[in-house]
Amino acid sequence: MHAYRDESARLDDALLALFERWHRDGAPLGDGEFNAFALRLFAYQLRYNAPYARYCEGFGVTLERLPASWHEIPALPSAAFKEAAIATCDPAKAELVFETSGTTQGIGGRHYLERALLYDAALLVAFDRFMLPDHLRLRYFNLVPDRAERPQSSLGYMMAQVCAARAERSDWYLRGDELQVERFLADLSEAVERGIPVCIAATAFALVHLLDALAARDLFVALPTGSRIMETGGFKGRSRVVERDELYAALCERFGMPRDAIVAEYGMTELTSQYYDDVLVSALPDTGVRYKVAPPWLRARVVGPNGATLPNGTVGALVHVDLANRSSCLAIQTEDLGVQFERGLVLIGREAGAQLRGCSLDAEDLTAR
Amino acid sequence: MTALEGIPARRIIHAIADAAARFADADFPPRVRLLDRIVERTGYTIPVVEYALDQLFFSITAPALERTIVSELGSLDALDRFVDRGGGETEGFARPIGSVAIVSSRTTIGVAIVPAVFALCAKCDVLVKDREDGLVSAFFTALTAELDAAGSAARAHAWEGEGDAVDLARFDAVVAFGGDATLARIRERVAARAPFITYGSKASLGYIGRDALEDESQARILAGDAARDLVLYDSEGCLSLHALFVESGAAISPARFAELFAGAVERAAIEFPPGARDARANARIATARNLAAFRAATGQGSVFSDEQASFLAVLDPPASEPPAFLPRTLAIRAIDAPDEATAYVRRHQLPVEALAIAGSRDEIVNMALDMGAHRLTAFGRLQRPPLSNTHGGRSRIADFVRWVTRDR
């Protein structure tokens, strides 16, 4: 037990130092350093995360037969978090427990994080880098689950931490599934009148409803300079889906803001760290393609069906290797598709699971095509 | 008046059979020319496409057409004139319903041809929404070579979108293949008076009773047959094997059968190599494989696959999981009795098209009836429905005729 505690503490210290170093000078993590850290963390997880170790054994990977590269670390499907406690620690002792929102089958998973400090530090330094490169203190309008209402939501927790540390002021406008439009508009008007730049943090679905509400009132609100929108979460499980380009164009029109003031965050409950669009930090021209960047301790592998990393520019499934997932599993396999480029990761998007099909497979849609 | 009304049914049937016979010849130039286009459209490999074309066209013979028509209408002559239909009290004449539109599906091969053939036998005018490869058009061209009037009666062309979409409201019957949402949209465009004949999404299943698992050699044959039912059309057909139930308690356990099955799938892939898959399907299969591997590592079930995830067989996934509906992917569920299979089907509200059965107990047949299956068959024949069978429980020709009766 002492060995676990000591080893965990050493890893946490190393991670916190890494976060701090990057926050301070933005220095990238070299391939060798990332590899060494990943393999060290992997060996630790094989020792203390029994379900993951048994899974890896099935791939012939054990403490005695460790891979040579982080690319070869067996990735655990995110759905495995619904099957077992994926944790190096006693789940009852985890300081944070986040729950996935479930799937079409309605079964949620849990991500146990032994130390909140690690999660908080990882999210804040990345948020600072990718959402607040200008260090502005913004007023936050959160259209995401309120931590007080849904403590198991990682997104709610994330925004609560950001607001506590970085906000000029913040409030929450989602109660259950209800968007509190009138209160939102009143508060937003006040911020606009006072010229306070704002950050609207919202799921894509909530943004669509917000736009509907603005349209119903024929309302256009020119946000103060420096304002931004953090869009997250996509449309998973929702019946109404709007193309992202269409959504962003409507937001720009309604809020009188440039397109590059909208930043999409991409995260998963099973990850500690997040990806962001590079629009606020990249000096490269806007090509219309959204490139995702991440802090240096989070890397994506685009893989084929055999799990091997595909060359840049090739579409494949995403495996995320998040060194900040110290107390769970560092390599997470998803069904999300993406393409890796030099500039960053491009998401191809998420879609619903496979459907019942038959001789009518993909039958012609007369009206929609 | 339709284009074929003045032509005897037998003449039409023989013309259709002759055209099909031409297409059944793998060297028939129009068929050869179509092959690559069908491969390109569907993503299936050439052996799979060749098999599909053989299955389709070899089945369309004059005797098979005549048998089917007689079984449904009572008489072939009923298509040409009044015939006795009521023990001497009534005569009936099966007149064409009129014009029929057939909206086929995107990835199947020639699925529209069978209803088109029966609509033509009923002397209807037929328009088929063809696919990019032009298979139906090519078949109709061959048919016209056999029967001039077919040139007017049988038309096929591709159309897209609402701009140049055919006005379905002017047809006397519409046949459509599709999912619920698609069919609902099409239904809105069909005239209220016109029959709307739908073939919605369906699943097919397999059930192996313990009496069929008493020796290894029998189990190997069964595994080979079930493997073929899985791999053909990469599990994308309504007649593909989507879930398999295996009874416990026999000499060959479900786990052993799963091993045999996995080996058989690999061998079946030699005859029918996997088709092209997109990254999305690859990602889903790989994820499903690894999740099954995780479950196996934690003591739940087993997984059989290969490095490329070209197939996936999972023994005993949770009952809460519906069939994966992924290429060459199958869940094998060990059960003790048929009611467990029925419960699974009900839980997931699976619309069952066909059930492959090994085992002779009455309760297995009763289970199939309870599930609502439209067809019972043997393993290895799941994807080879006889022409005379119903499809989706629907008759082949009866929907395309309008009976006129005359009292005697």
* Strand tally of chain A: 16
Radius of gyration of chain B: 23 Å
The description of the largest β-sheet of chain A is: 7 strands, mixed
Order of strands across the widest beta sheet of chain B?
Answer: 10-11-12-9-8-13-14
CATH class division of the largest domain in chain B = Alpha Beta
Q: SSE order of chain B, as H and E?
A: HHHHEEEHEHHEEHEEHEHHEEEHEHEE
| Helical amount of chain B | 25-40%
Question: What's the alpha carbon Rg of chain A, rounded to whole Å?
Answer: 21 Å
- How many domains comprise the coordinates of chain B? 2
Average pLDDT across residues of chain B?
A: 93
Spell out the helices and strands of chain A N to C: HHHEEEHEHEEEHEHEHEEEEEEE
Question: Per the principal axes of the C-alpha atoms, what is the gross shape of chain B?
Answer: globular
Could you tell me how far the N terminus lies from the C terminus of chain B, measured between alpha carbons in angstroms?
26 Å
* Known CATH architecture of the largest domain in chain B: 3-Layer(aba) Sandwich
Show unreliable segments of chain A: 351-369
**Overall number of strands of chain B:** 15
Task: Please outline the helices and strands.
The complex is a heterodimer of chains A (369) and B (408).
Chain A: H1 2-25, H2 31-48, H3 50-57, E1 76-77, E2 96-99, E3 110-113, H4 116-131, E4 138-143, H5 154-166, E5 167-172, E6 174-175, E7 178-179, H6 181-194, E8 198-203, H7 204-216, E9 228-232, H8 244-255, E10 262-266, E11 275-277, E12 292-293, E13 298-303, E14 316-322, E15 331-340, E16 345-349
Parallel strand pairs in A: 1-15, 4-5, 4-8, 8-9, 9-10
Antiparallel strand pairs in A: 2-3, 6-7, 10-11, 11-12, 13-14, 14-15, 15-16
Helix pairs in contact in A: 1-4, 2-3, 4-5, 7-8
Chain B: H1 9-24, H2 29-42, H3 46-59, H4 62-73, E1 83-84, E2 90-96, E3 99-103, H5 113-121, E4 125-129, H6 135-146, H7 150-153, E5 154-157, E6 173-177, H8 180-187, E7 196-199, E8 203-208, H9 216-231, E9 241-247, H10 254-271, H11 279-297, E10 302-305, E11 312-315, E12 329-335, H12 338-347, E13 352-358, H13 362-371, E14 375-377, E15 401-407
